[in-house]
Amino acid sequence: MRLPLSLFLLSLAVITHAQPRYSVLIHEIFPDPTPSVGLPNTEWIEIKNGTNHIISLQGWRIADVSGQSAPFPNISLLPDSLLLLSSTAGANSLNSYGRCLGLTGFPSLDNEGETIVLKNASGQIIHAIRYSMNWHKTELKKEGGWSLEMIDPHHPGLFAPNWSSSTNPTGGTPGKPNSVAALLEDRESPQLINAYSIDSNHLMLCFDEALDSAFSSQETKYRLSDGRVITKANCLPPLFDCIQLSCDWPLLQEKIYSLTIGALSDLSGNQIPAQQTTRIGLPSSPDSNDLRINELLFDPPTGCTDYMELLVTGKKIIDLSRIFLSTRSPGGSLGAIKAVSTEPRYAYPSDHIVLSADPTAVQRFYLVKDPERSVQTDALPSMPDTEGNLTILNGQGNVVDAISYQRDWHFPLLNSKTGVALERIDPMQPTQDKNNWQSAAGTVGFGTPTYANSQYRITKSGETIELSTHLLSPKRDGRDDIIQIVYQHEQGGNRIRLRVFHSSGTPVRELVNQALVGTSAVFTWDGLDDRGNALPVGQYILLIETTDLNGRMERTKKVVGIVDG
Question: In whole numbers, what is the pLDDT of the chain averaged over residues?
Fold first, then answer.
């Protein structure tokens, strides 16, 4: 005798209520319903049964970081079927699109992105997603009214590559197959995107997709330098993309360790290269000797964005989540203060870190030799094209470095200053000294984000007056574009006058007139005369006059040549 269909389905639901991870998937998300392009003005989530059997959802919950919904009622989800989840108030407007469950405590979906977790009745995580508005491929759809759809349910552990904006004219496909549905090939191994220390005995590794949690939780797959041993590894929920490691002996400050990672696997079986290594250590709060503003692009080409490059000049490891950016008004008051990163992100000694709102746009216009050092941030203040201020603060609110730049710091004879970065010449010389900044060379594409500046020079110590070069070739190719005149003296308080003469004795440029200096100073000459005109090829004399506190004057002459090539 046959059971009635309803009893048969109920019996299956009861039998199959305990389900493994990824049996039910978060399939579509609608976090920002306005401005509407056709769908009701309410937030919702669509889930999908990805198995070939019925699943009971009784007692399940949908959650975010701030809370969770009330338990689901006694409801079953058929194979390959969809269910919409929303607030109780929003359910009525969605019933015409498909089966909808209105939930008390339905989480409010952040327009900018957050983590959503689907849990069964016992609290087991079935699926979780940390969505982002950057998953939308167009700026228009980021503004609202469009859902985010999963592309291929066979790869639930993929994040950004497996999600895209709906292409349905109404803005989404609630209760229907996704408009972007397609088969994806996942042949890419997981990529390590962050490594940091929680404290001196615990480390964190984060990847760009979910990992095989059993495989990655084997402590023998990790090896730390300096004889330290990893005693425990745990692949963390809800996304299973991060691994927490415990080591047997505390890490030391200002010491960089090497962490070797074994062949971890994603959900498709793709493995990272065996014996991959990464740096790890304990961060310290920086002061003015540890971090410097090194390069600025404040007038970008159309389609690009401003950027600021930081150079780690000290021995400390710097956590960018404890570095803050602001602007200072002429009166001295600070504007809005924002952290560079919302999560730990480390910069190590000698690293060049480039901050921008859109690293991808910067990479389209400039050679970015080390994309891992290119950081997306919303903290970068507005950088006006003519002049502006940037101020860096540490976690205690102390100023680490600051600059009030001006457009006329650029090389005067440039045909256009748009798209040309301003580079620091010597990181150890004062930030605010305009003579310590020059336009990036044309031969490097007018910018050097993430690597050494084209105009980089190190001030040398030695004799009282020293030149960086005796041949000047001001062709803006990054090679002898400027001359640095380096002054060193054991006694401060002297005054300096610095003039340039043609070999015939005609004065052509006064660089400095009775400037008060300390024990050291650096001046630059770019091959121009007092009127800003390029001087012809030939031999020139630098006359440096120093007057001490007793009125004694000392004259030094240096011969330089302007060459064509």
Answer: 91
